[in-house]
Amino acid sequence: MMNRMKFWAASALGLTLMASTALADITIGVTIPTTGPGAALGIPLKNSIELWPTEIAGEKLNVIILDDAGDPAKATTNARRFANDDKVDVLMGSALTPAAIAAAGVANEAKVPHFAISPIPPTAVKEWNFVLPQFSTVLAKKMFTRMQKDGVKRVSFIGFADSYGQQWVDELTKTGKDFGLEVVADERYARADTSVSGQVLKALAAKPDAVFIGASGTGAALPQIGVRERGFTGPVYVVSGAVTFEFLRIAGKAVENTVFSSGPIMVAEDQPDDSPTKAEGLAYLKAYEGKFGPNTRTQFGSHVWDAMVILQKAVPVALAKAKPGTTEFRTALRDAIESSGPYNATHGVFQFSPTDHYGLDERGAVLLTAKDGKFQLVKD
């Protein structure tokens, strides 16, 4: 069942949740999984929204959060409610790729600016969609360069049996060719699975040089633990969706020396002072970990912080042309997002255009390793 944030909680945040708003109010609808298998991704997003300002460019900010439990059908229902009933100016969601694709489709039908907070493929990105996570190719090239340097040629893939996993298989088979990589096994599992023993056995039977894990959240720990328990001593590479402290806790010693792709937010303190992402990254960490405690940061939560960085620069431009709550404002805001960059954010420098709604370049990708329960930046 869809859950609206309780009014008292919203008041504590300085956010007002309501179905209809005054003409000048800016309304944002957010569909994320606060329950179900995607909650580990959705909760940090919800927490980060608590850090948002109460207004943008002098206009009151109204935020509506609905739980989609990671279900594309629920994400679709939520997005339609936002667009048609709540008349939102901006739509965000979701934290799981299949649900994000569903929300993206509704946003394009309704012509509402939409921020995807999970990576979605180019086929799903239309004129109203802006993708906050790094395009998989940006992260893939960073990772594949390292794999090539490590002498890896034969790769066994273990990942989710959905569009997120497929996106990473596509990167390995297409982009990976340029780095001399060959996929010798392609094993999938469902997000809710509790064992991947069969997939691990098949992946290792292919005698790979390395194992590549294309999964997110704590579910990515299953193959990580499995390949080490089966005695695989070769390198393991894991995509950015698994970069959480909870993953490190669950995987334990099995994760030592694994290489992760990541946005720079996870190691903001380790960035050089001239990095364009350091200042915003440190600001987010001060706010988030100041409220929720040390080592509570995630890549996922910071995506909605980045969305606010973008909106605070684009909204004043749109307000000069139209009032919130109108179709004209939605169009003006989309155009402003495309034209008001660059936006120095926690995950990189966004530079959108009418033909590029991903916006991040190689500055949005770093490599990490894990040691003693902490992430460490891998120096080039």
**Order of strands in the sheet with the most strands?**
8-7-9-10-11-14-15
CATH class of the largest domain, named: Alpha Beta
Oligomer: single chain
What portion of residues is helical?
A: 25-40%
* Measured distance between first and last alpha carbons: 47 Å
Compute the average pLDDT. 92
Describe the sheet with the most strands.
Answer: 7 strands, mixed
Low-pLDDT windows of residues: 1-23
Classify the beta-strand content into a percent band: 15-25%
CATH architecture of the largest domain: 3-Layer(aba) Sandwich
Q: Give the CATH superfamily of the largest domain.
A: Response regulator
**Total of domains:** 2
Structural class: alpha/beta
**Radius of gyration of CA atoms, rounded to a whole number:** 20 Å
Gross morphology is globular
Protein described:
There is one protein chain. This protein is of the alpha/beta class. The protein folds into two domains: 7-134 and 282-362, Rossmann fold (3-Layer(aba) Sandwich); 136-262, Response regulator (Rossmann fold, 3-Layer(aba) Sandwich). Helix content is 38%, strand content 18%. It has twelve helices and 15 strands. The chain has helices at residues 7-13, 39-49, 72-85, 97-110, 136-149, 163-173, 197-205, 221-229, 245-251, 278-292, 299-319, 327-339; strands spanning 26-32, 55-56, 59-67, 90-93, 114-116, 129-131, 154-160, 182-189, 210-214, 236-238, 259-262, 343-344, 349-350, 366-371, 374-377. It has a seven-stranded mixed sheet with strand order 8-7-9-10-11-14-15, sandwiched between helices. The chain has a six-stranded mixed sheet with strand order 2-3-1-4-5-6, with helices on both faces. Helix 8 (221-229) runs parallel beside helix 9 and helix 11 crosses helix 12. The longest helix is centred in the last third of the chain and has 21 residues, at 299-319. The protein is globular and about 60 Å long. The relative contact order is 0.13. Mean pLDDT is 92; it is low at 1-23.
